[in-house]
TrEMBL record:
Keyword field: NAD, Oxidoreductase
NCBIfam families: MMSDH
Domain of life per record: Bacteria
Lineage: Bacteria, Pseudomonadati, Pseudomonadota, Gammaproteobacteria, Pseudomonadales
PROSITE patterns named among the record's database cross-references: ALDEHYDE_DEHYDR_CYS
Organism of origin: Azotobacter vinelandii (strain DJ / ATCC BAA-1303)
Protein name in the entry: methylmalonate-semialdehyde dehydrogenase (CoA acylating)
Amino acid sequence: MTHSIPSIKLLIDGQFVESTTSQWREVVDPATQQVLARVPFASEAELNAAVASAAAAFKTWRKTSIGTRARLFLKYQQLIRENLKELAAILSAEQGKTLADAEGDVFRGLEVVEHAAGIGNLQLGELANNVAGGVDTYTLLQPLGVCAGITPFNFPAMIPLWMFPMAIATGNTFVLKPSEQDPMVTMRLVELALEAGVPPGVLNVVHGGAEVVDRLCDHPDIKALSFVGSSRVGAHVYQRASQAGKRVQCMMGAKNHAVVLPDAHKEQTLNSLAGAAFGAAGQRCMAISVAVLVGAARDWLPELVAKAATLKVGAGSKPGTDLGPLISRAALDRVGSLIEQGVREGARLELDGRNPVVAGYEQGNFVGPTLFSGVTPGMSLYREEIFGPVLCVMQAETLDEAIAIVNANPHGNGTALFTRSGAAARHFQEEIEVGQVGINVPIPVPVPIFSFTGSRASKLGDLGPYGKQVVQFYTQTKTVTQRWFDENEVGGPVNTTITLK
């Protein structure tokens, strides 16, 4: 019965409101197909009301002191910590990832909230004194106005927390559009943000699909837009929002390679590859989806297959689960068809994870660890981002041959090298054309004092999320050149009280 299913609210001007839209979508538990909630696709009037509320709030929020903003985020990080288990449970139910992964999702967002609390040290201008006779030049980093964010299903806590805290801490107001597939944990985080003291209108939330995305791109009062999601949608958002005169940052698809040298620590490397390829069911833009085994490391393939085969598939909420379900039936069908295509195109299926038996969860969108060898650059398996627990294994004679394989791929989100050789590591980090490099670290997402720096086809826009780059993204540099004449030289009063009328 529909009326017993909770409906997700919009947040407009500090109030959680029931949408009047006629278009709704169900939020489904991917392990059971149980309907958890209904999410509205906001109407044009509702989106306009959210933006208008943010525009009105900006007038006062931009004048708020740094201390006030910093204390708000100190309070917010405390509330997130106190509610971590509850947030992880909501996230696991609607997204499918294991409880441990869900806690990690929240925690990586929490780190950015902590970083936002240090805004006093981040939003500093520069001063040059006496650049000419009596002339000083200095810069101010001023907020832009209303900013917007569009976030994906795979990290429904972390990625919203990459966006709105830094935008708000720098003095902007924000309109968030979370993924319509799993908005429940995002809304709980939004409730906590209001509890921490975010004033009405400073943070607003609208839900929806392609139509709402286009309206955010087009709206004249939105000054900057952040996006994380697929390459197809990201390219569209970048083009459309840029044409509308906005600042845009889009983090998009990936094909991340791990290069394994034979001198690497074998057990550690195999564990790292299994975790990075199959963790979160492969639904990460920083997942390792290609392993390039170099020289004698090619002999490790049977052990890599054996390691992958030990991982347990099940509901994310169940203890001992290593891989939860994929987000949707559509994702399950897509991953299944790419595996079939890989077999047809001649890749060797070393481990087939299709149709695993998960007792008690027969309706779940499950795929187990799947591993192909003999993969070549022309295959669909290699060209497409699978976004499932599928690892492609390639081989190379030398490190330089492996580097050439990685550099020939258009994507540039992340890459990793496993070795004990400092010389090899340094050569790799210098020659590789990928924005984020791990050395014996499979998923090199930087801590928030640095910025996320994916490159090439994985990113549109110059400045990445969080860290120093995002402070630049969310602020306008204003340069002031000022001159004061010495009152003695212009015959005016010196050391006297000047009365201002």
